[in-house]
Amino acid sequence: MKFIILIIITTIILSCSKEDERNYTVKEIGGITTFKNSNKPSKELILKPKKIFTIDGNSGDSSQVLKRPVGVSVDSNKDIYILDIIESNIKKYDSNGNFIKAISKKGMGPGELSFPNSMAILEDTIYVANSGQKKIVKLDKDGNYIGDIFLSNELIELFQPVGKDRFLGYVGGVNQEKNEIGLNLSILNKRFEVIKELVPNRINLSDPNNNILNIISPYAVSEKGIFISSNSKNRYSINVYNFNGEPTYNIEKWYKKIKLTDDESEQFNKAMKKIGSRSGVPEVKYKKAINNLFVDNQGRLWVKVSLQRSKDSENNFVIDIFKDGVFLNRVEFDELTTEDFFNPETRLFVYDNRIFIFDRDSNSLSVYQY
């Protein structure tokens, strides 16, 4: 009998010990399960992205020139598609970065583009937002014209596939009378009609203190759900939804707000001027806790987090990695550099086991494998 009691006590102690070792707690907040993570990692992780090739937009003949790349997508064969807003076409490359063909051309006819602003590939069909003409142009992966989807909204921007029959993207436009711009992050059907609005965003363009980047909430999509950052300077928080837009759980992690250094403020001001902020360059003192979100080929969430930086770490690329709401570890990518704000001049995309990074100063796309 004493032996049995000893076993029970030992089991309880070990169980409590394992509970204490967890780096997170789970709470119900507003009826939603919330994972509250500490900064303590729960797993050893090593990720070492290596550059495998660069697509140089200044080389080759005129059909290969990249003038202003704005988006990259990948099909089921891992062929690469780059959308160029100035050339008003799509450059197609194989998985090794070899040029295949230019798709579409500038114009107003069937299958033609006029300053396209966004692109995604769903089930090997290319969807291109041609917001100037208030339509989506559909092409097959060889560039053959399928049809147009005419839009009731002024703008569809930064969209990507959700499952097999939906998209997640920004829907909005400009209210000239109020001098406002709105970009509402919404789930869309294949006709680009709003199924559910997840994050409404609106700012007054005449207010000099407004930061136009505040209407962009970092988001990512996995095979199971949608991740959206709270877009806060004070809180490290991510809301998770299913493909119908219903909340499933939240992720939180300890964070203390961080000021921009003088050098970072200068970099931010340069980036804002390049995107042509109509309200001028706002004074921004604090960084957003989360600058971007990605999902890797193992379904793990990558969080591009802000850091307290020094001269030795001013451009270090650091991500926090989560799985099913739990913080696994923080990883630094030695070969990559970044800033602690959304910079449209150096857009980054993650598809399968590859990282794609635009450098618009050199009109190039660097591809890394991890």
Task: Please explain how this structure is put together.
The chain is mainly beta. The chain has a domain of 135 residues. Helices cover 9% and strands 45% of the residues. It has a 6-stranded mixed beta sheet with strand order 1-2-20-19-18-17, with no helix packed on it. Strands 12, 13, 14, 15 and 16 form a 5-stranded antiparallel beta sheet that branches. The radius of gyration is 22 Å and the shape is globular.
Task: Write a compact overview of the structure shown.
It contains 2 helices and 27 strands. With 370 residues, it is mainly β. It has a domain at 43-64 and 257-369.
Topology (SSEs and partners):
Elements: H1 2-21, E1 24-29, E2 32-37, E3 50-56, E4 69-74, E5 80-84, E6 89-93, E7 99-103, E8 118-122, E9 125-130, E10 135-140, E11 145-150, E12 155-162, E13 166-175, E14 180-189, E15 194-199, E16 202-204, E17 219-221, E18 226-229, E19 236-241, E20 247-253, H2 262-274, E21 290-295, E22 301-305, E23 316-323, E24 326-337, E25 348-351, E26 354-359, E27 364-369
Parallel strand pairs: 2-20
Antiparallel strand pairs: 1-2, 3-27, 4-5, 5-6, 6-7, 8-9, 9-10, 10-11, 12-13, 13-14, 14-15, 14-16, 17-18, 18-19, 19-20, 21-22, 22-23, 23-24, 25-26, 26-27
